[in-house]
Write a structure and sequence with these properties.
Blueprint (H helix, E strand, L loop, with lengths): L2 H9 L8 H17 L1 H15 L4 E7 L5 E7 L23 H9 L6 H6 L4 E3 L25 E3 L1 H5 L13 H20 L5 H15 L11
Length: 224
């Protein structure tokens, strides 16, 4: 853990805003979804093995509630020969993606393994998107308050930025654009929702998130 991570961890070591009711809903929804989607997850794993071999899962350290690091799991979208320390973002037309990976990126089915993260308590169903350590230094100027909330599989940022890969201007460095434009926009969105959230509102975002993933409801316009 570098100096930035240690500072965030010390500042938010006691931070948490996830009560018993939300935790019960999270576990119940995650177990139900894991059972429901288990045939699909098995099919995805078989397709990934047939296309490029193992590993099937991609694991990466992310920042959780209180800036605690945890291992987040996704289905692998990139070729197994890709540099694991390459660009920390996925952009439109990313040449690292395999054929199956492009399908997973379009459907967001690559995130199904995060149901395990929800079950074991690292993540919630509804919460801010967990950031990678590469962008830990972005949590400053008030944005560090986002780390008071358990990261989630769905939520306002995940729905409204569903097609994030298409946001990056071709003439701009994606890392710079993310740090200076997209990350602050997400932080503002999160901090306008989570301090005043309700269980009913969380359920609404669960429904909106599901509908957005299956393409039935287009994301709302956002101001960046």
């Amino acid at each position: 853990m570098n100096a930035t991570d240690q500072s965030l961890h010390r500042h938010f070591v006691a931070a948490s805003d996830h009560g018993f009711a939300r935790r019960l809903i999270d576990v119940s929804v995650a177990i139900f979804a894991a059972v429901l989607f288990s045939p699909l997850m098995l099919l995805i794993a078989v397709c990934l093995l047939a296309e490029g071999g193992s590993p099937v899962l991609f694991a990466q350290t992310r920042l959780g509630a209180g800036a605690r690091p945890f291992r987040m799991y996704k289905f692998r979208k990139f070729d197994v020969r890709c540099d694991p320390h390459g660009l920390a973002l996925t952009v439109a037309g990313d040449k690292r993606m395999t054929t199956i990976g492009r399908v997973l990126a379009a459907t967001k089915f690559d995130e199904l393994p995060q149901l395990w993260n929800v079950i074991i308590g690292d993540m919630a169903i509804i919460g801010p998107r967990p950031e990678s350590l590469a962008f830990a230094d972005c949590f400053h100027g008030g944005a560090e308050a986002v780390l008071r909330y358990k990261p989630g599989l769905l939520g306002p940022s995940q729905v409204l930025f569903r097609n994030e890969a298409s946001f990056y201007p071709k003439s701009t460095d994606p890392l710079t654009y993310y740090r200076e434009t997209l990350f602050p926009a997400k932080a503002r969105l999160d901090l306008s929702y989570y301090p005043q959230r309700t269980l009913v509102a969380d359920v609404v975002w669960m429904v909106r998130g599901f509908l957005a993933v299956v393409g039935r409801v287009p994301p709302s316009p956002i101001k960046i």
